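Suppose you are handed a protein chain with no further information: no name, no annotation, nothing but its sequence. What can you learn? This example shows the usual starting point.
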Amino acid sequence: MSEEKLYAVKNDEGKYWDFSDNDIFWSLAATRCPTTSGRNLATSTANKHGGHVVALVEEPEKVVVSPEEAKLVKNCLWTNLQDAFLNNINLLFRGRRPEDVTRLKSALTNGYTVAKEKKYNVKVPHTDDSYFYKVDDEYCNAGDSYYLEGMTDKKWFTDAEIEHYGLGDCEKVWCDSDDE
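A reasonable first move is to predict its three-dimensional structure. Written in structure tokens, the prediction is:
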């Protein structure tokens, strides 16, 4: 995030000072140059022509959290527990690393995005070109890559699904699920 700030001068009618050649307040859409990087210029303009200085602040970068962390943060926001969350975060996230606690505090105050879960093709052991695919929530089966061509979500496994289907000892091949 940049340390440089921009300033605008806004009057009581909600119009902005035009810092180009015009000495007048305009609607924001009609203003050619509504900002200046000089706080002193903005302050002197506000004193001379009326209005008040408005500092434009760059939005902080959103924090990337796991799906599990997103649920925790979302629950705190939905239940209006944000203050309690910030005051008791060490209790709520007992056992987490200090840098994770700091990151989650930032996610709550600055906003967050959920990390896309990694997905894998799971290779069948002792084969050249065979991979597992999901039949349903209970079973998976195997087929060669030609057979699996065109199948999308059935052949992609998350870490949790690999554990669920008992494929933890198999070779995982990371795939970017946006490619297909």
